[in-house]
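Researcher: Here's a chain I'd like modeled. Treat it as a single chain, no partners, no ligands.
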Amino acid sequence: MRSDRQQLMLLVGRFLLPYWKQSALLALFSVVVATLNSVYPLLLAPAMDISVLSKPEPAKAWQDLSLNNLGVTLSDLVLGSASAASPITVVTIAVVLFVVVGSLAAIAEFATQMMSASIATKAHRDLQVALHKHVMDQELGFFLRNRVGELTTRFVVDAGEVVTSLDFALRNGLQSVIQIVLYGSLLLKTSPLLAGATLFASLAHVGVNRLVGGRLRRATAEQLNAIGRAGGFLQEGLTSIRVVKSFGAEQHEHSRFVKFASDLQRMTMRLTFCKNGESPLRRITDTATLGLILLLAFQVLNSGAMNFQGFVLFMLVVRQTIAPVSALAQAVTRIQGSLGSASRILDILERVPALPDGTIVPSGFKKQILLEDVSFSYENSKLTLKNISLELRKGEMLAVVGASGAGKSTLADLVLRLYDPVEGRITLDGEDIRSLRQAEYRKLFGVVSQEALLFNATIRENIIFGRSGFSESDLARASSIANANEFIDKMPAGMDTMVGDRGVRLSGGQRQRIAIARAIYARPEILILDEATSALDSESERLVQQAIDRVLETGTAMVIAHRLSTVVHADRIVVLSDGQIEAVGRHADLLEKSPTYRKACELQFKS
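Model: Modeled as a single isolated chain. Structure tokens:
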């Protein structure tokens, strides 16, 4: 099993390596920025020498350079001979160089920020696109087990946390390392004792990082889980607001949400404590270690091993050394916080769909769909369907009836291959549907379910959803057959009318007729109608049933019905009882041989 760090590196390799050229350029600019940021404070060293009477000899070579002779060495390097120049000249040149190099450092730093942001935003986009593609490829059962709000959290919060942390590390990591190396070498040349003290201060930051990192990782994971639970509950409540209002359950829902919000507040405070607690710990560490280094520096100064100019520069350089150490430690801490998010993302990206895709593209529907001894259960529970053997022939209307819970909709889901049977197989013209490409196979079907789910888009976009290569005449044909023109033509924007979230601006009958138009728009070879009129009032049912009758005049259909009046003229009727086929036949035959069908007819047609 991979560690959290290995999981994060796997994500980095997958989503950052494609931008290795930009990353290499970013590294180059980071070197430039780090060098300029390291150099420009030291350019004031010659000005410090002006007020000191005794000046050391300039360094003859790099290995001789230290903080004690840095000022005079830079003066000689720029002016040729520091002793020949006037004090105002030395100070002026030092200040000009300080301003110029500092300005260049600022411009280069802005360039690195933009390059880093470009890489990070592209990686973020790629990560979200990969997540969406992989989630869309999951089987239907995956969405029944995972709440929408929790999945959304992984898209928005987890992906953002990983990329933001990597962006911070990219911008600060390399620059911090370069500054530490440059300043560390100067400190070592000036005083090994003080360099050792500075190293101790750096190790103290590592200790703070180890103390905070694990707690931060756990707190981040807990907060993200709390966000997912709260988001899932909120999404569920808002999409079911009609039920909430109908039962006067607003206060009940609010009370439940208060618990989720309180859990989230508690987890957020814990994470905030871990994140913000790091800052005073680092500041206390800085203060204590700087105090120790200051004492040591005075001792070195008094011993004569360091001159006054070197002492002043040393205190400046120590601060400049500890700052990148602190930034580097913060980058590591940010990465620690993103480890939980990386793990949650990989949980999805590495999940293998329970319905592996086939490789064969179906050439169409020629003869039959055959179910052979098919049994099915949800999540290893009691069998919902048992030993189903059934044939759907081309050109026929096959009706499926039975009591609620008999397995009618499950049977349709298996034909669509939204699930795979636990036993038996389903074939299309002799080819096991598990060997077929799922998307191409499902394009053979047009589906109308009991609940017409529409998208918050125009009527046109809802009808042509998922299909391309068809014309306006196909759109007009579909809406006409579905009896939808009757209300579409009366709308101010016609086909371009927005239907609202889940089609809230339309009536139930209007939504169902749009759903029928969507099902037949691409001229599917097989229609599946799953209790398409059971939730409608009488007038809406009449209009929808007229549309269905037009659709069923030609073609193949599997009709799941609760109201038997809609299927009495079917070519064959399948009666399901307790997950098994009780009988198959026409209406008159089933009145004779099926007790379940006869009883249902007596109840529905007794008037």
